[in-house]
Amino acid sequence: MPLLALVMGLFLAAPASAAPAPKPDFTGSYELAGKRTDRVFSLEVQMKGRRATVSFSTSMADGSGAAPDADGTGKVDDDVLSFQFKDSFNNEGTCRLRVLPNSSLYQLDMTVTKVVEPSPLHFYGTLQLKKTSAKPASP
After folding, report:
1. CA 53 to CA 74: how far, in whole Å?
2. Contact status, residue 93 vs residue 124, Cβ threshold 8 Å
3. DSSP SS3 for 55
């Protein structure tokens, strides 16, 4: 009888371990990860269901040069937050935010689709972010 109990226990435990991972909740505040100190980047995400409202700001740490702010909207599909943005220089683009596998870091892939003013473009590209709060900063 103990062997039957062991087999039944393993059988019943298998579906629990095969359960899908929980969907990421992107709501919160994010900053650049790593040791790069010459730039500041802040991302705020507010989720409502699968829909998101997003804003970000970036600048050089010493305050020099362009310092774009941007707003956008998007949605979550397949564990990725995709959104469009328009920055304070009227540049426009698309972004994809996802959790990096086996990590507490996030990857933000930014693609500029319309260039009006090129001076802030060096801030955009692929960034690694860390989530600093599960709530977006207050306006």
Report:
1. 7
2. yes
3. strand
Gap between the terminal Cα atoms of the chain: 64
> Taking Cα atoms as reference points, which of 108, 126, 102 lies closest to residue 45?
108
Fold of 26-133: Lipocalin (2.40.128)
Q: Among 85, 83, 91, 88, which residue's Cα sits nearest to residue 116?
A: 91
**48-99 pLDDT tens trace:** 999 999 999 999 999 999 999 999 999 999 899 999 999 999 999 999 999 9
**Contact 42/139 with Cβ under 8 angstroms?**
no
Measure the CA–CA gap between 137 and 41, rounded to whole angstroms: 14
Structure tokens at 11: 């059988």
What's the pLDDT tens digit per position in 94-125? 999 999 998 899 999 999 999 999 999 999 99
